[in-house]
Amino acid sequence: MIDIIDGALFQRMVIHASASINAQKQAINELNVFPVPDGDTGTNMSLTIGTAAAEAKKKPAAAIGQAASINASALLRGARGNSGVILSLLFRGMSKALKEHERADGAIFAAALGEGVTAAYKAVMKPAEGTILTVSRLAAVKAAETAERENSVEAVLEAAIAEGQIALADTVNQNPVLKKAGVVDAGGKGFLIILQGMLDELRGVEAPAGQEDGLPVKEAADFAALTDEEITFTFDTVFIVRKTGNKSIEPFRAYLNSIGDSLVIGEDDEAFKVHVHTDIPGAALSEAQKYGTLELAKIENMRTQYEDMAAGKKPQSTDDLEQIEAELEAQEDQANAIAAPEKKFGVVAVSAGEGMASVFKDLGVDGVISGGQTMNPSTEDILREIARTPAEVVFVLPNNKNIIMAAEQCVGLVDGREIVVVPTRTVPQGIAAMLVLDPEGETDANAAAMEEARKNVRTSEITYAARDSDFDGFEIHEGDYMALADGQLFDTDQAIGALLERLAQADSQQQAEFISIFYGEDVTEEQAGEALAIFQRECPNAEITLLAGGQPVYYYMISAE
Q1: What span, in angstroms and rounded, lies between the C-alpha atoms of 284 and 288?
Q2: In this structure, are residues 348 and 370 in contact, taking their beta carbons and an 8 Å threshold?
Q3: Can you name the residues that pair with 556 across neighbouring β-strands?
Q4: Alpha-carbon span 415 to 30, nearest angstrom
Q5: How far apart are CA 262 and CA 236, in angstroms?
Q6: Phi/psi of residue 389, each to 5°?
Q7: What is residue 218's DSSP assignment?
Q8: pLDDT tens digits, one per residue of 244-265
Q9: d(CA 508, CA 460)
Q10: What angle do CA 176, 555, 429 make, to 5 degrees?
Q11: Beta carbons of 246 and 292 less than 8 angstroms apart
Q12: Rounded distance, CA 536 to CA 31, Å?
């Protein structure tokens, strides 16, 4: 039984927890009861704690207070989505409780868990039960009770997880939407997976395999064992492909054998890893993408490396990329220095699609961060753009409900900047807010006007169902078109034109004076013209504008004012 932990062990626990949730992130994503393609709780939590794990590897710490501080700082800046932000808050509270400690016993660790829950609840404006907050709170209460009887970190974690599992099972009953779908809260499950990963590290349980583990393929050529005559093909090529279907890779194996040698392929259910010597690595990588998504590639020139070795020089390899990356990061840090204020107000907006970005730029937005549904930017991403904005006051338009909390974490983190987050939930709301910004006005008056403007916008969207679902009285099948009205399911259909007609006939459109239709990257100009014609026919009293948004995921975004 491990009773006391220090900073080094705490960091290993975080690294193990990161591997654990990374291995199960897709299962957490699939707990999303709303069948739009944005079930990214697992992905966001994995990316968030993954940032902390990477930082722990770079900055070892002996004292647990220092380790927890490093962890909390990395989590804050790497937080993505609401679930990632809440996770960062839980660890930030823990960091405060551990700040002055070299080591932590069960009582100290339990108190830290409780402090984390306090921090998370304080930061959430309207805490909802049946969520990660409930699970973490009840787990922390049990941890404190256990520490009074058995002052051991291992015992405290074990008890917290056991109580958390009970609380997680009850989230079905606490949340009507979860109850109807028959699933537990995704964020709560993710948190328990993280705690379990930390406990597994204490107990010596092997961490889940990463992308490369389980695929024992040679990483790179053994140049010392080669002679120039033995190098038939020039480039030693290693890459990993994440499978996107059940397609056999045997034809790909035959193709690689035809363009190279020294071929080794490791394969599991989710991915395959290739090692091959070839003269045309680009062709190998291009062909690989017919079988899945390319995730990692390393290409080294064996001839130049052999020549370096023969000349007594150190052969250059992809390992040298770490130094190059460090130099680039240093340059980026310099580029990311806080810009001197040149004006009173600036604006940073989150948006996906070149058309949307152009609209914001035309309206005077200083910086556009690429992001949105399925691609939530981190707090660090938002901070970087705020720092680049040469203004005393920077308004942030998240334009997505799952990015608002990450944006709010930026407040107070950039010296010399007043940061005001306008909680826009959609891109049309962000555009409406931008239109009322008065460059000569006062900060509070502008914030109030932007808030009022975004509330007056009704947003409709058309996307597709990512999976089968029985939701809110709708029997939904994977691939069906889905219409959303202000984030709520409006209707579904197998014909997108029929959905557009019903949306155009809805009260929000019928009562509108101005309607803007933004069409996405998967919509042709001809199809967009047909959508415009439908709205012109059904909404004769509104002024209607059609714009190429270029946004992914959503075929159409429609604003009505």
Answers
A1: 6
A2: no
A3: 462, 519
A4: 40
A5: 9
A6: -80, 120
A7: -
A8: 877 888 888 889 988 988 777 7
A9: 9
A10: 70
A11: no
A12: 39
Query: CA-to-CA distance for 373 and 23, rounded, in angstroms?
Result: 22
Average pLDDT for 342-367:
91
Per DSSP, which regions of 244-313 are E strands?
260-267, 271-278, 292-301
Smallest Cα–Cα separation from 209: which of 123, 269, 163?
269
Instruction: Report helix, strand or coil for 538.
Output: helix
Tokens representing 227 are: 């002679």
- Considering only CA atoms, give the Rg of the chain: 26
Residue 304 identity: T
Contact by Cβ (8 Å): 257, 276: no
Instruction: Give me 450's structure tokens.
Output: 């932007």
Q: 3-state SS of 458-517?
A: EEEEEEECCCCEEECCEEECCCCEEEEECCEEEEEECCHHHHHHHHHHCHHHHCCCEEEE
Structure-token match 């989150």, residue found: 350
Over range 424-438, report the average pLDDT: 93
Summarised one tens digit per residue, pLDDT across range 454-471 is: 999 999 999 888 777 766
d(CA 395, CA 386): 9
pLDDT at 376: 84
Contact (Cβ atoms closer than 8 angstroms) between residue 169 and residue 162: no
Residues 6+ apart with CB under 8 A from 470: 180, 181, 476
- What's the whole-model pTM score? 0.69
pLDDT in the model for residue 179? 73
pLDDT at 219 over 80: no
Spatial separation of the C-alpha atoms in residues 449 and 436, rounded to whole Å: 7
Tokens of 438: 């008065």
**How sure is the predictor about 70, in pLDDT bands with cuts at 50, 70 and 90?**
very high
Angle at 196 between CA 193 and CA 198, to 5 degrees: 115
Three-class SS of 61-96: CCCHHHHHHHHHHHHHHHCEHHHHHHHHHHHHHHHH
Write out the two tokens for 493. 């259909």
Largest CA distance in the chain: 80
Task: Please give the single-letter amino acid code of residue 87.
Answer: L
